[in-house]
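Task card 7
Instruction: Convert sequence to structure tokens.
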Amino acid sequence: MRIGQNPEKSDTELKTDIIHRIVIPVYIPNLTESYFRDGLDILKLCIVSLLKTIHPKTRISIINNGCCDSVCRYLETLYEEEAYIDQLFNSKQNLGKINALFTAIKGNLEPIITVTDADVLFLPGWQMATETILDDFPEAGMVSPVPSSLGYAGAFVNSTVYYSFFKGNHQFTKVVNPDGLLNFQKSIDRVMYNSHHLENYLTISNHATKAVIGCGHFVATFRAEVFEHAPASICKAKIVGGSENKYLDFPNDNGGFLRLATLDNYAYHLGNVKEDWMQAILDDDRYSLENKALSSLSKAKPLQPYQQFIGKVLHRLCFVKFKKQYFRYKGMSKEASEQY
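Output:
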């Protein structure tokens, strides 16, 4: 039996004054296997760094993606005690990274969404830096606080390349923070950069600001409109297998949005082993800096399909087939162009 009318029926519009949603899937099934042994410690570093560096118009969604009891208890405590963490989704089984992410992405109203792994240490200023690039580049859809000299070489920068040739200005710029590149390289235990990569990266600029072309997706800030171009189907892969390309990278490029990164390094990838320097950075006094929010976000201006196609052709010609010649034309030395 129902008595009366649901009062929500008289006010049906969903609204929020929060502008930035951060989504973190967490999969730590145990603390005994060597791979996961430091998992909870790494997660705590990630969460604390986030809480210290976000502005008041931010909220955090955590997806408990089949975690062990110790991690579950920690996440429940966070949800009860931290006002910024307003959503905790619990699943007893691993839904896969993408399905976990989209649990929150598709159910929230914020115009800016940061997707991050649970092993990222956020540095002061990351949020203002990424939000500013999104605001200053209305065409931008994806911005990482971790730049890479190899971002230009990715497969999902066709829209970005078109913009760089016809609407913005692209050039090689001195790397602001080479140690940031080296830290990421160390965190994945793989050599990525040579001396030339550590010296210059390819940037794009407009009348308002400058950013690095391309980025990775272990932590990235998106316009919410990007996800309108994501597949509607459930992702069948737990992790990798092209799932992040299909649901994060392709929607941004195919939607006509730029893929960029900040000039400076504003986050560290921690990996799965806790080291002393991580806590030392977190204890630094700079984490007391005030964090300010955008008053509003510029309206998105995605590129058209024909522009994406032209960008694809230019990327193939200038950044792949005739890369050495083109990079020399852009001011690189012969040696650098051959090794870049």
